[in-house]
Amino acid sequence: MKVRTTFFLLAGRAFHFLNLLNLAQSLFERATHVEPKSFAAWHWLGYVQLDLHDYDSAAVALDRAATINGLTPAVWRDKGLVLLRLEQYQHSLSASNQAVNLDAQDNIAWYNKGGAHLKMGQHKEAFDAFVKASSISPKDEQAWLYRGLVAFDLNDYNAAVEAYSRATKLKPGWAEAWCLLGNAYAARQDLAKAVIAYDRALASASTTQCMLETLQNKGSTLVELDKDEEALKAFEQLIEVNPKDARAWTDVGSILFNMSKFETALQSVETALEIDVSSGKAWHLKGLVLREMGDVKAADDSFARAKSLGETTSL
């Protein structure tokens, strides 16, 4: 019986290594049937089901493994991750605590622990866990990224800059990390460095969402730097990618208004309102433009519309 179990385990691990996950799962299931009390069989079954995103089945298998041998940190670590995926955050935290109690140097368990704390809104505890994870494994860029995310949420922008900087050094082509670094620089009013970080993000952005977010943040930062021409280019580039972005059209209109280009500003804000007629900011900007163009009645109507939509910007 043990020979057959060993065969199924070795073959399953080989298929897992080759990323043939369904075949691996089948072999690990056969191992549990041949030897129902095999810790390794249940653990590997849960592990491969985790990779298959079958979290309910993985939770059952890992429960069986933990019942057979509850002193192995890895099973609690994996269970913590599965429960995190199932959004059972308190149970995930309990499993991750068990893992780090058994092995305080398990960086992945600390990482899972941080994730559970974060999901429960316990930012200080999450930060401490990610600090521990990144200290144990200083080349784990994901741990540094999450360390930065939590530091940012805690308004500790210096710590966020430090963490994101480490993440970008470990993975220089990581556009999302560069964008987050830019946000942290901007939050602490280090605007020139923020723009540099955004440019690095744009140079390696592989998803439309990352590109749009970075262009929006870059444009807003350039406005703060009074670099209207450069900001206008950023927002126009954003519109090229997503012509239906009402906020970007409004931002373009705002810059053109500041440059006293009222007719083109009006065209931009009207485009924004065609996309989103409920934008109080766009209605307010339209009022400002119309007032400068001498159409006081239409301007007042726009201001009234903005006020009705909750826009409280002073005139």
Count of β-strands: 0
Query: What sort of overall outline do the alpha carbons produce when their principal axes are compared?
Result: elongated
Percent range of helical residues: over 70%
Strand content: under 5%
Structure description:
The structure is a single chain. With 315 residues, the chain is mostly helical. It has a domain at 243-315: Serine Threonine Protein Phosphatase 5, Tetratricopeptide repeat (Alpha Horseshoe), CATH 1.25.40.10. Helices cover 79% and strands 0% of the residues. The chain contains 18 helices and no strands. The chain has helices spanning 2-17, 21-34, 39-51, 55-68, 73-85, 89-102, 107-119, 123-136, 141-153, 157-170, 175-187, 191-204, 208-224, 228-241, 246-258, 262-275, 280-292, 296-308. Helix 2 (21-34) packs antiparallel against helix 3 (39-51), helix 7 (107-119) packs antiparallel against helix 8 and helix 15 (246-258) runs parallel beside helix 17 (280-292). The protein is elongated. It starts with a helix and ends in a 7-residue tail after the last helix. The model has no long low-confidence stretch (mean pLDDT 95).
